[in-house]
Amino acid sequence: MAVEFDHRRISLEGYKEICMSTFLALGMSQKCASEVTDNLLFADLRGTNSHGIARMKQYVTQTAKGFINCKAEPEIVSERGGSLVIDGHNGMGAHISTFAMEKTIEKARQGGLAFCTVRNSSHYGVAAYYSTMAVRAGQIGFAFTNTLPLVAHFGAKKPLTGTNPLTIAVPCEKHPDFVLDMATSVVARGNIVNCAREGKEIPLGWACDKDGYPTTDPKAAEKGFCLPLGADRAYKGSGIALAIDILSGILSGGAPCTEVRPIGTLTPEEYYKGPGICHAFGAIDIEYFMALDEFKARMDRFEDDLKAAPLAPGCEEILMPGEPEYRHYEENLKLGSVEIALENYQEVKDICAKYCPEVDPEAFIVG
């Protein structure tokens, strides 16, 4: 269920200038700033506003406090066959993860399959950014991450697991690429944060308060925890979340969700430890299995058959994973601008005033 927000629409050029100017002012390299900016913009272009410029305040605050080392570079600590282990050294998640996915794609090109784990990272942005990197290389892409402990495991009322999103992206020809990108909680916590900022109620079933009771108050939900995917079968969402944590947090040699560090649990002297978030990336080079054109044709026929099914009551169209986001993306590109929730826009203005006062977000408002 979507929640509507009052918003401002700003130009794509302005968006990039705001982000790049801020990140460079914080001390990021040109490459790192560009990759973090691209990740945020990719999210907002696709309408995944919980992971777009709404994350600016989080990144800026954590970097300024030293909780994230924005100058850190990823290091390959193990590399054998189609496997990689990377240490992010508490750097920017999008920068580390872009490097990791590039290496995973290279490995898959050499041997057909590749899998990479990453430890000591931070929030990596929107997951589909990485799986679609593989698609552009003619591959099937996977990305997983653990997160801060924001979700109560099935049967518990203490948040110890993460929203632990997963994404799988598959190339098509006639249809938009198949791009599944989902949290293993009912909703990404960023949506709850956005509702709290905007003073909007959340739908019942998204989260519980600190005492474990379902709530529609986003501020109570922020003090409580998200619910795992699955409604009356929430153990399924919990199980998937744990599997993702095994692939990322445990297999990487890093921190599982039970050990990931929220900034509020550390003293300022301990901020250097960072959150310890872990990721995992996979890629399959399709040409090792069949010709890429043949595979894409098979995907198109597969989706044609699915879309030809009789419509359920109240449904106007059968959509594939990633199709609504693709339409958002194309429409926003055509308009040359994206929407930013009003409260997020005010945060951006405050950030610019502090870190790059020569940049005026008001100058980039369109429409």
In short:
With 367 residues, this protein is α+β, with helices and mostly antiparallel strands. The chain is 39% helix and 18% strand.
Outline the biggest β-sheet: 7 strands, mixed
Total count of domains: 3
Helix content: 25-40%
Shape: globular
SSE series: EHHHEEHEHEEEEEHEEHEHEHHEH
CATH class value of the largest domain:
Alpha Beta
Strands, count: 14
Number of helices: 11
What is the name of the CATH architecture of the largest domain?
2-Layer Sandwich
Percent of residues in beta strands: 15-25%
Strand order of the largest sheet: 2-3-4-13-5-8-9
CATH homologous superfamily of the largest domain, by name? Malate/L-lactate/L-sulpholactate dehydrogenase, NADPH binding domain
CATH topology annotation of the largest domain:
Ribosomal Protein S8, Chain: A, domain 1
Q: Round the mean pLDDT to the nearest integer and report it.
A: 95
- Detail the poorly predicted runs: none
Question: Which helices and strands appear, and what pairs or packs with what?
Answer:
Elements: E1 7-11, H1 12-26, H2 30-45, H3 56-64, E2 75-80, E3 83-87, H4 93-111, E4 113-121, H5 128-136, E5 139-145, E6 151-152, E7 159-161, E8 166-170, E9 178-182, H6 189-198, E10 207-208, E11 214-215, H7 218-223, E12 225-226, H8 234-250, E13 277-285, H9 292-307, H10 323-335, E14 337-341, H11 342-355
Question: Your description of this structure?
Answer:
The chain has 367 residues and is α+β, with helices and mostly antiparallel strands. It folds into 3 domains: 8-64 and 336-367, Malate/L-lactate/L-sulpholactate dehydrogenase, four-helix barrel (Hypothetical Oxidoreductase Yiak, Chain: A, domain 1, Orthogonal Bundle), CATH 1.10.1530; 72-185 and 231-326, Ribosomal Protein S8, Chain: A, domain 1 (2-Layer Sandwich), CATH 3.30.1370; 194-227, Hypothetical oxidoreductase yiak, domain 3 (Wheat Germ Agglutinin (Isolectin 2), domain 1, 2-Layer Sandwich), CATH 3.30.60. The chain is built from 11 helices and 14 strands. The strands form 4 sheets. A 7-stranded mixed sheet has the order 2-3-4-13-5-8-9, sandwiched between helices. The chain has a 3-stranded antiparallel sheet with strand order 11-10-12. Strands 1-14 form a two-stranded antiparallel ribbon. α1 (12-26) packs antiparallel against α2, α1 (12-26) packs parallel to α3 and α1 (12-26) crosses α11 (342-355). The chain is globular and about 55 Å long. The two termini are 27 Å apart. The model has no long low-confidence stretch (mean pLDDT 95).
